[in-house]
């Protein structure tokens, strides 16, 4: 029998691939895209500039950016022939489950566009398929939301950047520059974050040679879980409970005493403050408002209660906590918090899918059988 290595639960700290896309240094509270600090990029660059970085491996000059923006904005419009599927998909799942509809649409668009398996496609074709899927994701999600709420879907506007267009497609109103930039910074911060569950799922599917849309559907399935992408709205729900309770520290201590998980706090990788949360806290404070004020008080109380209960393992606010606060301040309804996360993460998924497609080796780990002994003979 071939010797096998027993991996820790959840594959924690197990390296399964090489990547040039980015890395997360949990002990340092730092993560990067290529050679650039992701937080610095969010502070200084636009969504399109960072998207270009993921696709081409370097930041664009002015001419490259102009060409990229023109090309990707031309890919935002949904084909007319899938309008019936769009209407049906909008009614799938529960109130906060638009990712179900997005998975259905992403699956349907594959054959509509004639997308071929990664195994059978050249690099240029694979890149175009990924760009188109990423460009269409906000259009699909906003259309699903509007149909579900009894409104007509809107056509994307070529004069608006990704974040401003996203807010327009959801609300029907052109957003303020302040709100568009706040959402843009959030989107840049969450494009990629190491080999998280959804990214790893996308790469496993890509390793089989399946098409881009199949891999994105798998990523979306993993992403829909409340322990992954489904957390921003739940974190804001907790903030509502705190406000209703009236005493953030008492509420937090009660949750800890009852062994309830406080959504928006703690992270599988970071042992310091989540750098994404640090910047989003600044963005939230710049936006202001009673929800932001309540969030600042709540964060301090929860961190204190968790530190008292687990002095050797402090837990801090993660990206979901202030993500919900920022999106709420910018007028995004809670049902669209996780979809907004998906708009950005599709960039990272696509980059990982394309990187994995360069390998011809299928990902095929082993499992340790622990059931009843088999009958032999």
TrEMBL record:
Positions annotated as active site in the UniProt record: 267, 320
Record's keyword terms, sorted: Transferase
UniProt GO BP: carbohydrate metabolic process; tricarboxylic acid cycle
A GO cellular component entry from the record: cytosol
Pfam families in UniProt: Citrate_synt
Catalyses which reaction(s): oxaloacetate + acetyl-CoA + H2O = citrate + CoA + H(+)
Keyword Transcription regulation included in the entry's annotation: no
Superkingdom, taxonomy of origin: Bacteria
Keyword Membrane: no
GO MF, any single term: citrate synthase activity
Pathway in which the depicted protein is active: Carbohydrate metabolism; tricarboxylic acid cycle
Family per record: Belongs to the citrate synthase family.
Protein name, as recorded: Citrate synthase
Organism: Gordonia sputi NBRC 100414
Gene from which the chain derives: gltA
């Amino acid at each position: 029998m071939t010797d096998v290595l027993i991996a820790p639960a959840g594959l924690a700290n197990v390296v399964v691939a090489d990547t040039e896309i980015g890395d997360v240094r949990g002990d340092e509270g730092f993560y990067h895209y290529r050679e650039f600090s992701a937080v610095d990029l969010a502070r200084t660059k636009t969504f399109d500039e960072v998207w270009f970085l993921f696709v081409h491996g370097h930041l664009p000059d002015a001419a490259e950016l102009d060409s990229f923006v023109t090309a990707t904005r031309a890919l935002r419009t949904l084909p007319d022939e899938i309008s019936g599927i769009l209407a049906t998909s909008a009614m799938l799942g529960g109130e906060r489950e638009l990712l179900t509809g997005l998975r259905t649409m992403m699956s349907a668009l594959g054959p509509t566009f004639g997308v071929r398996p990664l195994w059978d496609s050249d690099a240029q074709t694979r890149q175009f398929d990924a760009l188109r899927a990423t460009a269409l994701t906000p259009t699909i999600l906003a259309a699903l939301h509007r149909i579900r709420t009894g409104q007509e879907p809107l056509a994307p506007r070529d004069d608006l950047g990704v974040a401003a267009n996203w807010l327009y497609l959801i609300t029907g109103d052109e957003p303020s520059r302040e709100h568009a930039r706040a959402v843009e910074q959030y989107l840049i911060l969450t494009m990629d974050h190491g080999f998280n569950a959804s990214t790893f799922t996308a790469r496993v599917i890509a390793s089989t040679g399946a098409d881009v849309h199949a891999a994105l559907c798998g990523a979306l399935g993993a992403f829909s879980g409340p322990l992954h992408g489904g957390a921003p709205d739940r974190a804001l729900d907790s903030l509502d409970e705190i406000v209703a309770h009236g005493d953030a520290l008492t509420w937090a201590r009660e949750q800890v005493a009852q062994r309830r998980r406080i959504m928006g706090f703690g992270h599988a990788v970071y042992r310091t403050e989540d750098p994404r949360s640090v910047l989003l806290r600044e963005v939230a404070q710049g936006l202001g408002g009673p929800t932001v004020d309540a969030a600042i008080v709540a964060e301090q109380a929860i961190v204190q209660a968790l530190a008292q209960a687990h002095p050797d393992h402090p837990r801090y606010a993660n990206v979901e906590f202030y993500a919900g606060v920022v999106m709420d301040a910018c007028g995004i309804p809670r049902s669209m918090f996780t979809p907004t996360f998906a708009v950005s993460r599709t960039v990272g998924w696509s980059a990982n899918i394309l990187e994995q497609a360069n390998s011809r080796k299928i990902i095929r780990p082993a499992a340790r059988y622990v059931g009843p002994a088999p009958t032999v003979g």
